[in-house]
Design a protein that fits this description.
By secondary structure, the chain is an alpha+beta fold. It contains 8 helices and 19 strands. Strand 6 and strand 7 form a beta hairpin.
Length: 362
């Protein structure tokens, strides 16, 4: 492990728990503790907690912040004009390609943007270069910690920690909370696993305490990046860099739903999106369920009648389904559910079928 990797405030906690650490987007992050399958199933059956403090946090305020973000983001933030509401959205470049996917929260007097760790500098520079004088921006990443609490028992755990008078937020809503009667934070009903759960936005100096309090519950397991990836892939959730990037547009990526046609205001890249929606993309992202044995991985060839027609974006073994699952961009003619394709897994050609996401459904 190189010495120049960034460490989250929970780095020593991960080491104490025996985590295997890896380089992820320039951060020294835990990929697993007890094992990916065990951590995955613990999240599906009980509660898993994740250190996601590597994510970037930007605060955007000022008289012009609403209009500014309406022009920079694809989704319609007028739909989250109520304090505490949150929204998944995209930020596009002038060519209509995806700079990043984001969560935006309306905190009442400003907007909080949570961005992918690998895109922190790029996102900041893009927003800053378009920012008008009546908008203020602050990068809060280094002062902020983020813990995801995910699983069917997450609400009960949070209710116990926050007190019986605390009312858990609705899905995609943010509310204040006091953890264990002493630590103030913001709690969002969001996540990346497909389970019910919360994301806790905490001052960096309080992060270790919150982590330890959560782990004091027997039913709570620490979960690394490995299971985070299998959990999100089972739900068909996109991963930036694998399933979308600055070579892909929202329609090809299956994210047209976060580019609403009814949005009144224009946004960067909108003309490209609307044209692509009208004419249809040459390629689309599909979800592939293996019908034979094997584990698909990023970069493997996708075949149709022996010809390469795509490359796996995300691929893994699904602990819930006990099958291989993958995503890939393939020609539009091969995107209908039920279409038979193959994946070249080392020396084996393994049959797969296009399915409608999610792969795993409660």
């Amino acid at each position: 492990m190189t010495d120049n990797l960034v460490r989250t405030p929970l780095y020593n906690e991960h080491l104490a728990l025996g985590a295997r650490m890896v380089d992820f987007a320039g951060f020294d992050m835990p990929v697993q503790y007890s094992g990916i399958i065990e951590e995955h199933l613990a999240t599906r059956s009980s509660v898993g907690i994740f250190d996601v403090s590597h994510m970037a946090e930007f605060r955007v305020a000022g008289p012009g912040c609403y209009q500014f973000l309406q022009g920079m983001l694809t989704n319609d933030i007028s739909l989250i004009n109520e304090t505490g509401k949150a929204q998944y959205t995209l930020m596009l470049n002038d060519d209509g390609h995806i700079i990043d996917d984001l969560i935006v929260y309306n905190t009442g007097f400003e907007y909080l943007i949570i961005a992918n760790a690998s895109n922190r500098e790029k996102d900041w520079n893009w927003l800053w270069s378009h920012k008008p004088d009546d908008v203020d921006m602050v990068d809060e990443t280094e002062r902020t910690g983020l813990i995801a609490v995910q699983g069917p028992e997450a609400k009960r755990i949070m209710q116990e920690l926050c007190g019986q008078d605390w009312v858990a937020p609705e899905r995609f809503t943010l509310v204040p909370a006091t953890i264990d009667g002493r630590i103030s934070c913001l709690v969002a009903r969001t996540g990346y696993t497909g389970e019910d759960g919360f994301e806790l936005i905490v001052h960096a100096e309080d992060l270790v305490t919150v982590w330890r309090v959560l782990l004091s519950f027997n039913e709570v397991s620490p979960v690394g990046l490995g299971a985070r990836d299998t959990l999100r892939l089972e739900m068909g959730y996109h991963l930036y860099g694998n399933d979308m990037d600055e070579t892909r547009d929202p329609i090809s990526a299956g994210l047209g739903w976060v580019c609403p046609k009814a949005k009144a205001e224009d946004y960067t890249g909108r003309a490209v999106v609307e044209n692509m929606r009208a004419v249809g993309p040459k390629e689309r992202l599909v979800h592939l369920l293996l019908e034979g044995k094997g584990v698909p991985r990023h970069g493997m060839d996708v075949l149709k009648d022996g010809e390469v027609v795509g490359i796996v974006g995300s691929g893994s073994h699904s602990p819930s389904l006990q099958k291989g699952i993958a995503t890939a961009y393939v020609p539009a003619d091969y995107t209908e559910p039920g279409t038979k394709l193959d994946i070249q897994i080392r020396k084996n050609v393994v049959p797969a079928v296009v399915v409608k996401p999610p792969f795993y459904n409660h």
